[in-house]
Amino acid sequence: MDPDSNQAEATRVSVCMAAYNGAEHIREQIDSILSELGPGDELVVVDDASTDKTRDVVSGVGDSRIRLIPSSVNRGYVRTFEAALAHSRGEYVFLSDQDDVWIPGRVQRMVDALQDAEVVASNFSFFGQQPRAIESIRLRSADSGRRWANLFALWVGYRPYYGCSMAMRRSALSLVLPFPGFLTETHDQWIAMVANLAGTMHHVEEDTLRRRLHEANTSPKQWRSLRRILAARLMLLRAFLVAVRRIRRGSPAGTDRPA
Fold first, then answer.
1. 216 pLDDT band (50/70/90 cuts)?
2. What is 47-64 written as a DSSP string?
């Protein structure tokens, strides 16, 4: 039997982190994650060709549960998260930013929620800078099953689905991966879109992490131009059509990605 298959059976939780020039904060985040993991779990860190000491910091933790996967070229956070998910081996797969801090009990709370859902997203608190008003909108458990309302709110930018607050069952990856080739941002909106369309999304109302806000966050700090907003909405509309096709087939579309 393939040794990777044995490892997949033994791994309960995989945490997938995209890292890029995160040396300043990544150790604090890693420590908060490792304290949540069991001895057979894993933290998959894909480094997106960092130019600082990120790889050295990750390697220096010295924990066998960390799998550091360096990239020779910078591909951006969407492709880096995609790679981390593809390398994961656990039954329960979490997404993680490099600069947040997990609240104790996060893994168990999310795993409990995943007993009745394929994908879950939680609320979170902030530290560092003040959040924008739209970032302070919270998920409600009562909205979990309102998939069309969730999809519309997601499309207009009102529903706060953030990858750092998400976890999924391994079975969900067959629909989520690969990301559509045209997707250049908001991989988290893509995941939430697939989950809501499939009727497998659940909202966890509790805060399960503290999100660090600073100038280097990938989320925009200011309102974007109308042109960029419209381009983002059109991209999500394209993604919606891809998601519909995948769910109808029950498996990923091989023609979603450019050759």
1. low
2. E---SSSHHHHHHHT--T
Cis peptide before 180 (omega within 30 of 0): no
Measure the CA–CA gap between 228 and 151, rounded to whole angstroms.
Answer: 20
User: b/e per residue, 220-257, with b = 16+ CB within 10 A?
Assistant: eeeeeeeeeeeebeebbeebbebbeebeeeeebeeebe
Following DSSP, what letter does each residue of 61-130 receive, concatenated?
Answer: T--TTEEEEE-SS---HHHHHHHHHHH---SEEEEE-SS-EEPTTHHHHHHHHTTS-SEEEEEEEEEESP
Class of the domain covering 3-249: alpha beta
Residues in a beta bridge with 18: 46
Rounded to two decimals, the pTM is: 0.88
* Percent of the chain whose predicted confidence (pLDDT) is above 70: 87
Cα–Cα–Cα angle for 221, 104, 59, nearest 5°?
75
Q: Where are the domains of the chain?
A: 3-249
Q: Residue 130 is encoded by which pair of tokens? A: 């003040």
